[in-house]
Recover the amino acids of this structure.
């Protein structure tokens, strides 16, 4: 994150500013910092011009949205900073395509399954707009003071000239978003005659009777349509002019509004072809179609999980790295499972919800056992059924076996991580400590002390458990207990030990 901007440069005119370390002329008033840090909307800086005459004297120049985005994207790329922040796993795939589209000034459609950060990417584009933009005061469609579009702004400039008051609009107010639904109308998107204005005495032919829709109201900004195929085809036709001719025509009026809008849309591939479709002329008008994807490795899935999971305060909870990998591996396996319906995808929200549930179950145990801290264990993974069932769809042949399918996926995830992470060069040394009557009990409600007591009966467990837990093993009995259970489960899944399970409780014993 960059340092605070320097004070305005007097030689550059009112309202202009220069970023730390920048070379060349100062940035235009309100230009986006290369870091993309969004200033919360509020009152614009006091030094900005307040009349058209003062704006001209400041040297401010009008520019299109495409050029504005291109300038700020170029600054980000040059500075080695992300174009869209908070999006992981797309650096070598989606981001380069997005950068190309923005540099080319294209409208964009993001195509991908649910939970692939499509909406986050779109909303992140707002940070690429200049922080403050001058508009004709009172304008409903962000009229450019130099090139007014609406009749209201044209009349005001004709009457007041250089004394026309100027308002400054924050970048956050230059973004509009609509979730496409079957009941969306042209009036919602483009506009309609306002009967109240007609009742006030204006003629129907007067352009001032219009109530502008969502698209005109983000003139000189970004408009997003989520789930575009769900938009009725006759409504999609209304967007054709916005994308190609860059204008809108409102029913019953001979009025043309040349808008400056970047249009961005999202679609699910399944919906794209089956539930709905994008009409061919509209699809042809998008300059770039970018395919998103799920995290392609466990490390990225874990990073998304850690950044997005909401973990409330209370008893401190630690999730060991190997269990974080298990949660991520579960999602990765679910996306390849033949038992699950893959047409709608397995969202990253599954990993996030499962991580939050894992933390909650560990905290619940700590509250019951009155332990000062909690560390997630393998036995807590049983709680993930509730947070997984609603986010995956089993194939028709598997109906009624959801719990069993999820349990198999959890076991496969634990086994995969165990094979990567377990510090056991010779598992037989641990198994040899299990006598005919040796039994180790585990459960999501057992205190850590009961796990540590098992080390006296199976002393071969202690060394690999401490190696897996790392430095935390000497500081937290709960961390050592979690490592003990993970190794026991791994030995069971590799067919070295037997396991008898009943709900959240289990016991491990020799196979002899």
């Amino acid at each position: 994150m960059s340092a605070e901007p320097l004070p305005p440069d007097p030689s550059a005119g009112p309202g202009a500013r220069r970023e730390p370390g920048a070379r060349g002329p100062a940035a235009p008033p309100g230009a986006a910092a290369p870091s993309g840090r969004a200033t919360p909307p509020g009152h614009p800086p006091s030094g900005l011009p307040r009349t058209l005459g003062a704006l001209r004297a400041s040297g401010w120049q009008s520019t299109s949205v495409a050029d504005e985005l291109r300038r700020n994207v170029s600054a980000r790329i040059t500075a080695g900073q992300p174009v869209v922040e908070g999006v992981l796993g797309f650096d070598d795939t989606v981001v380069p395509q997005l950068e190309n589209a923005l540099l080319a000034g294209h409208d964009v459609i993001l195509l991908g399954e649910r939970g692939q950060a499509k909406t986050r990417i779109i909303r992140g584009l707002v940070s690429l707009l200049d922080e403050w933009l001058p508009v004709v005061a009172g304008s409903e469609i962000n009229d450019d003071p130099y090139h007014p579009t609406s009749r209201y702004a044209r009349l005001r400039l004709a009457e007041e000239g250089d004394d026309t008051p100027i308002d400054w609009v924050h970048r956050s107010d230059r973004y509009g978003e609509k979730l496409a639904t079957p009941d969306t109308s042209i009036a919602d998107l483009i506009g309609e005659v306002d009967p109240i204005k007609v009742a006030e005495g204006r003629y129907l032919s007067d352009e001032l009777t219009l109530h502008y829709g969502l698209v005109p109201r983000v003139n000189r900004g970004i408009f997003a349509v989520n789930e575009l195929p769900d938009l009725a085809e006759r409504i999609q036709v209304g967007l054709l002019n916005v994308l190609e001719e860059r204008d809108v025509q409102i029913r019953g009026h001979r009025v043309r509004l040349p808008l400056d809008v970047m249009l961005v849309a999202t679609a699910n591939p399944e919906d794209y072809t089956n539930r709905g479709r994008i009409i061919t002329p509209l699809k042809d008008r998008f300059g770039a179609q970018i395919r998103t994807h799920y995290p392609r490795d466990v490390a990225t899935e874990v990073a998304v999980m850690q950044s997005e999971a909401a973990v409330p305060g209370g008893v401190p909870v630690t999730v060991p790295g190997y269990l974080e990998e298990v949660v991520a591996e579960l999602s990765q396996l679910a996306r390849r499972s033949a038992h699950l319906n893959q047409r709608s995808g397995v969202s990253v929200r599954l990993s996030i919800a499962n991580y939050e549930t894992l933390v909650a179950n560990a905290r619940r145990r700590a509250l019951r056992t009155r332990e000062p801290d909690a560390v997630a264990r393998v036995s807590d993974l049983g709680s993930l059924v509730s947070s997984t069932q609603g986010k995956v769809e089993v194939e028709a042949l598997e109906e009624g076996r959801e719990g069993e399918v999820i349990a198999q996926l959890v076991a496969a995830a634990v086994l995969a991580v165990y094979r990567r992470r377990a510090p056991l060069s010779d598992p037989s040394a641990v198994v040899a400590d299990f006598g005919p009557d040796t039994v180790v009990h585990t459960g999501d409600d057992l205190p850590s002390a009961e796990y540590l007591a098992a080390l006296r009966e199976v002393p071969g467990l202690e060394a690999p458990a401490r190696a897996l837990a790392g430095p935390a093993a000497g500081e937290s009995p709960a961390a050592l207990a979690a490592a003990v259970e993970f190794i026991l489960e791994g030995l069971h899944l590799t067919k070295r030990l037997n396991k008898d399970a009943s709900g959240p409780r289990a016991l491990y014993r020799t196979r002899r």
